[in-house]
Amino acid sequence: LINTLQRDLNSPNHLDICAALTSVSRLVNSEMVPAVFPTMMKLLGHQQEYVRKKAIMALHRLQKVAPEQMETHEARQAIRKCVCDPDP
Predict the structure, then answer these.
(1) Residue 39 scores a pLDDT above 80
(2) Of 17, 26, 55, 72, which shows the fewest CB atoms inside 10 Å?
């Protein structure tokens, strides 16, 4: 499951990425967070606004599952930048 999610999160197709982000939001547990967290942080800078929105929503879910991952300064800054972005 983790390998499939990672492959889809790194896909060039934005529909595959969005499907993977939806799956992460529904299926993630605390053991899976370290495997998908770095890739999801990269998606905050994706060119498609829909992917960025889904990434923020999935990261919110990760924060509920494993709050210790979100406590890094880089994670907080990246999320704050995306939430305050005038071009969502």
Answers:
(1) yes
(2) 26
